[in-house]
Design brief:
Elements: H1 43-58, H2 64-72, H3 79-95, H4 100-113, E1 117-119, E2 122-124, H5 126-139, H6 155-181, H7 187-200, H8 208-225, H9 227-242, H10 248-262, H11 277-316, H12 344-349, H13 362-368, H14 381-398
Antiparallel strand pairs: 1-2
Helix pairs in contact: 1-2, 1-3, 3-4, 3-5, 4-6, 5-6, 6-8, 7-8, 7-9, 8-9, 8-10, 9-10
Amino acid sequence: GTPRKGGRGGKNDVPLRDRTGKIIEVKALEQSENRWKPSKPTDEEEKVYKAAKGLLNKLTLEKFDKLYGELLQVGINNASLLRGFVVLVYDKAVLEPTFINMYARMCQRLADDLPEFEDEEGVLPFGDVLVGKCRSEFEAVGNEPERQGLDELPEDEKEGKLRKLRQRTLGNVEFIGELFKLNMVGLDDVKMSVTKLLAEVGGDQDRIHPLCKLLEGVGKSLEEQDKEALDGYFAQLQELSDGGKLNSRYKFMIMDLGELRNKGWKARREVAGPKMLDEIQKEVEKENRYTEKKKDDKAETPKKKNDRKPKKEAKEAKPAAVEDDGWSQVAPVNAKTSQKPKGKDTARIKGGSAKGTPPSSPVSALAAKPKVKSFGSSKGGFAALMMDDEDEDEDEDED
């Protein structure tokens, strides 16, 4: 009958042919004696990994020394456990960029304190296994297994997975930079990484971000060790920026990187990192004092304004003092402001008219005298009234 064309559980008997129809002979894969064989961790190894992961989750600057000592005693006693432990440390470092400096310093101590183990590949120091893990992850950027089947996923789920992959890539290059500053990664590895990212920018502009992140971390040390190579990298970046094909976001990244180099690799803002509990407590107290002071200033400002208003109103509505006899006190009469006859009446009182006419009789002068204002006048008050009475008495005596 017709041979089966494959299927679940069936065997494909149809030969493989090329475009011309010629049968292609496929040789069976040869299995080497020292091939890698995936093995499921034993129950004992699972316990070690679980204990190590629990300690890594609790790791802080405050508890670093205590937990680090427990980590050394967790039971890493063979090459297989060492490889698995390196994977745990690497994943924690690249997915927690805030603590990446702490993990890098921990790896530096582990490279000195953990014993070397041997397997089919030879002696395996912790430092070499860690750097090998960083290198293999970096070389796989863009070809990660997680990228398979992304186009078939919904748009939001696809973007979520791509975001995680980008975060892992950024964490990888940042971790490489921290290990380079601690002399755990060599100069050749760093230069190879930068060159690879520059070569891939043409096909994927997203490589600009990890490239700038890597140079930001290793730039100062790289300038001291190989300034000529660093100048070449910046020249290529400037050429990419001036080409007009990069979007604005990546152009600004390149500009910021150049500004950082011009300022001696001193960042404008302090890089966020792990802090001791005492430091956090001091920052919280400082912020609380500032907030309370601001509230007090706002509360005092309207209070002062309210205090002024009653004083002003009291000053305006101050009642006149009353004597025992029922008379109100008035201000003393000022000679300059006391009421005087003006115009023609003044001239007549003095004995002459304003136009030089002869003086009138005392009776006419008396008649020309201005009428006395009633009590309570604003000009002179009671004192002015008494003065007018005295003048009338003197006129009667003269008569």
